[in-house]
Amino acid sequence: MAKPSASLPHLATDLPLKAQVEALLYLKGKALSLTELCQELAGDRPSMTAALLVLMQDYRERESALEVVETDRGYALRLRSECQELVKKVVPADLGRGTLKTLAAIALRGPVLQTMVVEWRGASAYEHIRDLVAQGFVRKRRAKEGRSYLLQVTEKFHQYFEVTADTLRQRLALPWPAPEEDTSP
Questions:
Q1: pLDDT per residue over 110-132, tens digit each?
Q2: Domain with 37 in it
Q3: Residue 184 reports pLDDT greater than 70
Q4: pLDDT tens, position by position, 128-176
Q5: Burial of residue 9, with CB atoms counted within 10 A of its CB: 0-12 exposed, 13-18 middle, 19 or more buried
Q6: How many C-beta neighbours within 10 Å does residue 124 have?
Q7: Is there a single domain that holds both residue 152 and residue 102?
Q8: Per the domain annotation, does 134 fall within a domain?
Q9: What are the angstrom distances between the C-alpha of 164 and each of 123, 138, 154, 170?
Q10: Is there a contact between 104 and 75 (Cβ–Cβ < 8 Å)?
């Protein structure tokens, strides 16, 4: 069995494989091949294929706004095409889908190191983070150790999306520990 990737070092291994696949597809925000999924989650092809099929069926049955699809580049978690008009109405023009996914990763895992967000979301996360800081949704400051930055959503984020930090953590009950928050000014 393959060794888990360093990009998801804190993934809770007690989660069902289907939930791990779902989390990975969401965090990466791009299509992943079966081989990539197996490498990232230290799974075998038959188990991964079975988990993907169950996950795809689950999304179809619950008539979710999201779907797991197979593309020419692999498997992806995305918004159903029927929801695109709603997205255009609800999402501000200055926050694209990729930027929103990066913001969601920061909100769910924050405070989080910028290097981790870039591992999860890819190199485009640097531009997303710059935009989010400029718009006041994310605070960026030097981490206590290393050269990376610590990212955390701001009060503007909580007001704009009408959600508190406690509500986010309680509803999601994420098993991954976040880095210690730097309380210096």
A1: 789 999 999 999 999 999 999 99
A2: 17-83
A3: no
A4: 999 999 888 999 999 888 888 999 998 888 877 777 767 776 666 555 4
A5: exposed
A6: 16
A7: yes
A8: yes
A9: 28, 14, 10, 10
A10: no
Structure tokens at 92: 């501000």
In which residue are the tokens 């779902």 written?
Answer: 22
pTM: 0.47
> How many folded domains does the chain comprise?
2
Pair of tokens at residue 58:
């689950």
